[in-house]
Amino acid sequence: MMQFARLLKMGLIVVTLAGLSINPAPVHAQPPAPLDRFQWVQGLDDLYPREHGPRLSRPMPTRRRADIPLPDPSFAIDFAHYPTSAAISVFLDELKAAYPGLVEVLAAGESWQERPILAVRIGNHTAGEADGRPALYVDGQHHAREAVSAQVVLYFAWYLASQYGNDPLVTHLLDTRTVYAIPSVNPDGNDIFLDSDQRQRRTANPTASDDDGDGLFDEDGREEAGYGTYDVYHYEFDADWVAAHPDDPFEEGWQDHLVSRRFLGVFDSQGREVPQIDDDGDGQTGEDPPGGVDANRNYDSHWELGNDDPRKEVYRGPAAFSERETRAVRDFVLARPNVVTASSFHSGSDVLLHPWGWSTTAELSDVFWYEMLSRKGSQLTEANGFHGAPHTWTARGLYPGSGSTMDWLYERGILTWSPEVYGASALSFTQRITTTNTYTVGLSIGEGFNPSPGDIPLTVDRWRRWNLYLLAATPNVGLSGVDAGTGALTVTVANDGLLPLDVGVVAETEQGVYTTTVNGLSAAERAWSVPLQPGSLSQTAIITLMASSRVGTAAGPLQVEVVKLEIQGEAVRVVEGRLEPFVKLGDCFGGWFAGREWDTPEYHLGPPLLLELFLPIVGRGG
Q: pTM to 2 decimals?
């Protein structure tokens, strides 16, 4: 510790948040080259766990930050910092005030520490009942240290509201669909991550986990060791290894040459030690942090298969839905049966996950749609200097996990993904101490799970593309055209979303009542004609569309649209309801589907998903 303190005093090591650069050593020393901050170092997993090693986000900015739309600086969130839960609440209220016809803030629940769990509903409220339109649900930050996942949701909410009326795609989507969003499912954890312990993953349930087994709960956490601090170690290697690797000791096989490792303490970005207090007097510090339960293992979807050890980071909790946070999500979603699609955002890797999380072999009835939309997701996320996020069946390509939000939502009939939006390395810096065999190593789990503040805009804008695509793919039935002539009324029924609908159509005219069914309507419109009363100069007709979803584990009734028409000769006027023009939404994304190059091992983790089923579509790429 004395040696490290002297180095800090002499200015040999200065770590800054912006760029994580290291001052060079003085001229009499052999200065090492700074490590790539995204370097994957096997063998450090016991210090900081990682989601999926081989896939690291490497943002290489190809656009200036000014090219990405951002809120006015007067807003509480600028996407250049990670906000507190209080700032998130203020920002949502600001959105409501700035866009009153589009945004409504809703109370979803309350956390263990009595922070509000807030949701927003986004849609054109003047275009009909928002809760009656097909909806996309998104949420973020089930895990505290995955703060960027909340930023992805917040940015999407702001982008939709701010671009309505300016962007034709956004305008059409909010006129015909609804978005529900819970940006931070775990607000307690968010603030713990920022202020006291950047390792925090779980909820703050005060009696869930006695991590050190002393009969007390949460009595010895970390102090002021939140995001922006570093756990610093000394690693000593044998002389031959250092001679062969003077700048970077963490080459393959480094574990075999490690002589000793010593924890020096927690330091801030200016190199100042952050003292840790032994609150329970047992000779250790930080061994019993707040909480908790892994919220993403607490849902009633094969919950019983989860980890039942309260000391583990993936502890499932004492019962399914034991957590206030997961009950808030459950109650919010169940109250809104119009939700068709969903994304529950995480970070720690760079991969687009879909069910199942709990099983590698369970039947997946929507495998076709999962593969085809995920493949397009890989293509769309190759943006802003990022490689496209690979896609996978979660249990096959990442790891099995039961009790997840994703699986629970899918079992409710909602086609759901769980994107991991960013994953780097906890290795933040390394510096050889002059010409010794010892290196000072700084680790930050906050930087492993979240981009640096300067890269937040690049990251959230990248995943905005996936969100828009999934919202556009969400099915929506509407009457896109009517025509009266030659004694018949022709109505055109449309679904401009990709996911298919079965549509029952009822036409009530003065001539009679007529019915038909349009099956498998997907990104298309179909015309249907019924007779009108002969010789009548003025008559009315009522068209009722009853749409049922064909995807999801609980496919069934989804949407009802009623349009009343007044017909005079060949002129038709809408009296009640509205016409919805059909839009080729796939064109906004370069086609609905991506080609086979997005299903190579680089972009598809795990075994192929019945590729032969996709051959008729894959070749089109549109």
A: 0.90
